[in-house]
Amino acid sequence: MRRFKRARRKFVRLDEAKIREALESYGAFKTDLLLVHSSLSKCGLIEGGPATVINALRGWITERAALALPTHTWSYPDSTGVAPIFDYKSTPSVVGTITNYYWRQAGVVRSQHPSHSIACSGPVAEKLCRDHELRKTPCGAGTPYLSIAEGNASVLMFGATMDSYTLYHTAEDAADVPYLYMPEQVTLRTRGDDDVVRSIQMWRQDMGVARRFAATADWLAEQGLLVRRKLGLGELLFIPSARALHETMVKTMRRDPLFLVDEKARPEVASRLKSN
Q1: pLDDT for 78-129, tens place per residue?
Q2: Among 47, 76, 83, 167, which has the highest number of CB atoms less than 10 A from its own CB?
Q3: pTM value surpassing 0.70
Q4: From CA 98, how far away is CA 51, in angstroms rounded?
Q5: Within 13 Å of residue 142, how many CA atoms lie on the same side as its CB?
Q6: Which residues, listed in sequence order, are joined to residue 227 by a DSSP beta bridge?
């Protein structure tokens, strides 16, 4: 099946013009920042690779707006309890080819957070990424992700599903859901501008709790918070207002703290929480 999918992608070729056409079907870009989660291969064979996607995105949002992509590395401690040293100038992103290309480009600023770094270019890049590594959580209070979630920003899932939507963790943090973090902080390491390696204490998200992020797309579309467009073999999921989605999710999870937990995992999570 994987071989069949790879072969099929070769026959669906996308260039910058086709990508721009899909993006412009959403209308003129109106907010101050676009956060993009991406998959290079899901929509087909993109001529020119990651550069083509970035050029299309930049052409759509114009130089007026900032462009941000997550460049997560998940540089967590190994079995011995020692975390690898994260270097924002050299540690590769593990969340897609496009993100790994983007943070290396001239004019792009990358935050120094060891597990959940973000790369940004444009008017607010320096301010957005500054001091990310000093926060106690990867995506919560004081982080670039909360700034995006509460700001005048949009989000695009380029061939990616809502399973990749980092701002859901930001909403979980804001709603203070009881399952989000592991019981104890972990020690992470990051290399700063001065080339000094610093150890920092960080709350790690408990990804042992199964989520249903991807399954929320239809619900979001019904709420008018997400708009779908077909692109080649895949699709684009556009969230015009990150703030509107964030506020909706926080309100929803304050009523139902397990709203984003997978249905099959809910009984176990609920039982564990009661015992604690």
Answers
A1: 999 999 999 999 999 999 999 999 999 999 999 999 999 999 999 999 999 9
A2: 167
A3: yes
A4: 8
A5: 10
A6: 238
